[in-house]
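Collaborator request, handled under Task 6.
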Amino acid sequence: MSNGIAEVMDLIVSGKIDATRVIAAADSLAAQGADKDALGLYRTWLQYNGSNPLAYAIQYNLGVLLGKFNDQEGAVEAFKAALAQRPDFFPAHINLGSTYERLGRTPDAVTQWLGMVGQLPGVTGDTVNYKVSALKQIGRVLEHTSLEESGEDALRQCIELVQPADAMQHWIAIRQKLCKWPVLTGVAGPTRRQLLTAMSPHCLVFHTDDPLLHLARGNRYYKVKVGRPKVFFDLDSHRAALERRPKRRIRIGYLSSYFREHAHGYLTAEMYKLHDRSRFEVYAYSCSRRTGDRIQTQVMNDVDHFVDILDMNDEDVARRIHADGIDILIDFNGYTGEARPAIMAMRPAPVAVNWLGYPGSMGTPFHDYVIADDFTIPPDFELYYSEKVVRLPCYQPNDRQRLVADITWTREAAGLPANATVFCGFNGLQKFTAPMWARFMDILSRVPNGVLWLLDGGERINERLRQEAIKHGVTPDRIIFAPKLINAEHLSRYPLADLFLDTSPCGAHTTASDALWMGVPVLTVAGRGFASRVCGSLAVAAGLGELVCTTFEDYVEKAVDLGNDKRRRAVYREKLAANRNTCDLFDTDKLVTHLDALLEGMWDDFVAGRVPVPDLANMEVYDEIGTDLDSDAAEMLARADYLDLYRAQLREFNRHSPLPPDTRLWPGTEAKPAEAKPAAPAKGKARKGK
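Structure tokens returned to the collaborator:
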């Protein structure tokens, strides 16, 4: 114990120091990284001054520090003690609710915040801030529960009070999941443009097929949410370390919150053990929940080093990755799920890769490569990505040992008509849009015995979709909802479907490969952005490129033709069955062999000083243009003049204030690069639209 701390302790014991001086001393210790000493000060002061009028403040600070040490139960007791002395100390209510959430006690968290909102007195600056904070917390937590509508309402109240961008972001995400169309309506105050500007990159791919806006929004999100970290390892330091690096295998690290039973986890379960261990050492850095399920256990067994980082802060994780000597760090989250982009921003490894999690460009200065294939990112579409594009035969891995329940399903058991044409739409409901729903209803209206089989969204969402069907002249009994089942049982019922109908602008990913694995043909329309091309990539890799359409008109006509022609559907099923064991989609050995070659090439690039430098010029301008161009009245995928729309606006921006050149659409002159060609399957098998 230092002399300074000992002196403060003596003053506490003798009763000669007040709470404010203890707080100042503890803050000073915390600033020096001596959090444990700060804890000691608070505990000692409370031991001698528990009835002091300011004890609530010390208890509160103690709770905050205990939370930093992951002593959540201790933090709960400290915050409760603060509130017992001063029930109107609203920061303690906020933090107590957050601590309950970290402990998995979501109902207690929401109850705490709602109770605080009910206690708030008349409207003042402070009470508005506390109310906004509580409402945001409620909305954020309920977003991922069956109480989304309550979360939407809490966030709406918050937005109508002060219009915070983060509340708008979560409110939009909930409305997408609830299929409340148009999504960007239903709240007083902010304009449609303000709401769209607040939309996260991940929600944006559900909203529009505008890859230039996706790129620019990714860049904006990184700047606002992450920014330049205080701790980072620059390329010069990595190059200096290279000179001291002993000759050894290349160390690759996977950073993910999906090392568990999750769509992403199901895809990647088999691949880790297939890396060539004579060339690579494999690390997994897991911020996944500790489920102990089959997938998590398999990953832990199949990688060389499994590092649980769930309770570590971002800086400590980055230091750990750097200390482990990781050469190539693969970001499996991007802007999805429980992503931790700040770790990637610190550049803990010399090479950083965007793969499989976020279906688009990250738009950051620290992601060097994006892994794709010839279909998801054809050469003409590379302008939509800040990363250098490298390609696999098919970008998506698959687990050939996936579990399928041994259940003999009948249509009757699944609640389906025995003789109907069953169109399956098992995508997440957040991917459904009003225009796509209208196409589904058009298809049903032209296939008399057709039904649409969807995943159960809960009774309120189900009823909303039934009412939307009625608006299009389709009786609600033709919309059938499949109860949620564990994954193995869900897979086993897929063969009851006749044709999988994909969504746009964000199509099926794992859901499509599940359907194809189980022998169900998949019909999709390919756009420009990554998310709108994944399903097409999978269909091509499975040998069904002719089911990849290039226009919405072609998509509808193809669905109607197949819906009314059982024989043609049977041909596609037979083709899938014949190809399953040899096609690129399910050749995981081939994928990992090519992946190993890509990773080796990335490492060679770094050693040779050829690390890609992303062009992020004019990103703010592209974001503004894309935001202005967006409209509920027109889908960007259908615009043949897509790039010309951007060029015209770039000229207007340049007239007002000269723009620096970029390598996309603004070379610094009036020159006009050729329009990227319409989306088409890699092997040219898509039908042309009418």
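The cover message to the collaborator said: "Confidence is low (pLDDT under 50) at residues 678-690. The CA atoms of residues 554 and 689 lie 5 Å apart. Please let us know whether this matches your experimental observations."
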